[in-house]
Each structure stands twice: as C-alpha cells, then as structure tokens.
Write a structure and sequence with these properties.
It is a single chain. It contains three helices and no strands. It has helices at 13-20, 29-39, 46-59. Helix 1 packs across helix 3. The radius of gyration is 13 Å and the shape is elongated.
Length: 65
C-alpha cells in the first residue's frame, strides 16, 4: 500500500539541517554521528536527504511495523 496522501507530505529542511544533521545540537548530535558513519551525510547534505525522503514517501510501499 502506498502512503495515503503522500503528495501532501512535509519534510522540514530546518529539522534535517538544524537537528538531525547538526553536530552541535544537544540532542541531534547523536543522530548526526549515525548519518555520517552510515551514509556519509553532513548538514551540507540536508537538501539531498530531504529530496530522497520525499521521493521515498511518494514511490515506495508503506509497511506497518
């Protein structure tokens, strides 16, 4: 099953850049270590990560966990 209303999905670039990929953010810095180690992504890659996430929501099947 595709994600319902995927065309309305929002991925806030600020959350990616200023939290998930920010090595100085008090809580986010732990996430950035994983993004760098596993994917080689840094805060400079926030827009690329956003694009990949948006494409995945629109094109891939959703799975209940």
């Amino acid at each position: 099953m595709k994600v319902p209303e995927a065309e309305n999905a929002v991925v806030d670039i600020r959350k990616l850049r200023d939290y998930c990929l920010n090595s100085t953010h008090e809580r986010g810095k732990h996430k950035v270590r994983l993004f760098v180690a596993m994917l080689g992504l840094t805060d400079d890659d926030a827009q690329e990560l956003r694009s990949v996430l948006m494409e995945a929501v629109r094109t891939h099947e959703a799975q209940l966990m």
